[in-house]
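Hi all, long-time lurker, first post. I run a small reading group and we've been trying to get comfortable going from sequence to structure in the token notation. Rather than ask abstract questions, I figured I'd post a concrete chain and ask someone more experienced to write out its structure so we can walk through it together at our next meeting. Sequence below, copied exactly:
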Amino acid sequence: MASSFQTAPTTAAHLPAPAESTLPAWWRDGLLWLTLALTAFAVAPFLLPGYFWGANDARHHVYFLFEYDRLVQDGIWWPRWSPDFAFGYGYPFFNIYGLFSHFLAELLHHFLGFSFTAAVEAIFGVSIVAGAGAMYLFVRSWLGRPAAVIAALAYTYAPYHLLNLYVRANLAESMAFVWLPLCLWAARESVVRPAYRWVVALAISYAGLMLTSNLVIVLFTPLLAGYVLLLTVVHSGAATRGAPWTRRVGAWLWRCVPPALGGLAGLGLSAVFWLPAFLERQYVRVDQWFDGRYAYQGHFIYWQQFFSTNWGFGVSVPGPDDPISFQIGAAIVAFAVLGVLMVWRTAGPLRWEIAFFVAGALSAAFVASTWAAPLWEVPIVGGLLQTAQFPWRWLVIVVICVAPVAGLLGHRAIMVEQERLSLPLLAAATVLILASYPYLRVEIREAAEGPVSLAALMRFQQSSDEMTGSTAWVKEIPTWSPMADYYISQEIAGENVEPIDTKLDYSIFDYETFGASSVAHSSVSEEIYYFNGESTPQAVVFNHFYYPGWNAYLLDGEHGRRVTPVPIVPEATGTLGRMTVAVPPGEGYLLLVYEDTPTRMAGGIISITTLAILAGGALFAVLYRRRTQR
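-- Answer (accepted) --
Happy to help. Here is the structure in token form:
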């Protein structure tokens, strides 16, 4: 379905988007391949020998992957429980944290033999190249190929993007940079050129973003919804100008259908993750991630920091003297300003989209700044803003908005040689890369905890007070554990550090009348033999934080079938909220296992059903097209 963007005459009075038929397929687009090649300068730091262990989250993602691999070794490719976090008491990490980027890294580690650090660095590199390609495809669909080159390079070399890569080393947020322009592209096409493939594309892109970073998607969704609303109003209005208001409303509603279906399908595809992450969030302690050094009040951006060229390594601190940079980027801002000034008068209907992204960038910069501090205290509005945890995280929205605007400088109305490589285009690309070239570096360091192992993971958690999340039943967050002692003792003895073979608390047993021993143990289950000479049930305590999903069953023999469910409760004494199971008099076998809750099963059913519906729709579309072409 054509729109006014394609049917408007190509004159100096308008800046029409290139018609879809005039654009080469992506694999035959030379400028796309040039753009991807020019990302090599951003990828290069990850090719250096060693690993940047000192970056903010660099260690985290290695151990996230390490823990993912521990679960894959037990045959679990969709993990929810991380048995070694919190010093071995366990934490439902992947139940509340998007796993897509670590899934990709695990593929490299498990099947291709990449080391943990090499796999993480490789996914950083993939996120850079794929993010540039995604931004290129989005912008070329409405501003043309030279504009797409500039926008993609502005996106890649934006200082906040580089901060995410080299200083913060946040793998999930870096991978989110791939999905953001893909969502915008699919949403735009579903309005401008409604077709079933764009509904599917939006569903996959939105679900991918959800599975990658459920934090970024909360920040991004209002922008995406606003963009869709703007497009539907502009395009339905252009098509029905002068028509009765009822027809105009009908046209607007009809334009809303494809992106609405795509967004709902994206939620459906990702329900297996977000439904339990949302409904079971109440079972984890969140105070430790929003108080103290994580409190948002100390992490607003001062206005001068948006333009400061200082660059450094470290973490955000209260006040204007952060050792790290929150600049937007002088070259990118200059390109955006010049692009808007040069095309605004002749932009025609594209002016609405340009204004939208300018407003989006300015709004996101404002809410990240000290000027917006009072807003963060306002009910509802403050709740949305605080989902970012740190105000400076709103810079991700600044980047996704300012990059397309910077691409305006490559529009055909400015660059005389349309839709092909030219000297002005090469000059613009060079300026963008050189402007950020001083920031293209990582600090290679040795691992303070030693080689990646369970012992190193314990030391990392102790020294940094990281990855020590607790469930809601934990009254006092532990600072060490018997499991940590076990791993460190293996390392001191010069042995290979192997996973612990039981999490039973043996210190509570009176072996004359009651005791238990482990028969089989894995990352998410343990079978024990017990004998109870008392006349009443006796408690067995496991060194696991209590959390829904852990279930206990009496078995009809060793490795037997499950016969009777046994309730699990948090321990009545102490501060750790460990899981306690009351076993009956006599002897027998008991299985403790981590399983899906009704919420998790419901999310899985919704995702599978949505996938089936999308696949069925695709099959119907193909058959219908073939039938109509006969």
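A couple of things your group might point at:
Strands lie at 514-522, 525-532, 538-545, 550-555, 562-566, 568-570, 578-583, 586-594.
Residues 1-13 have pLDDT under 50 and may be disordered.
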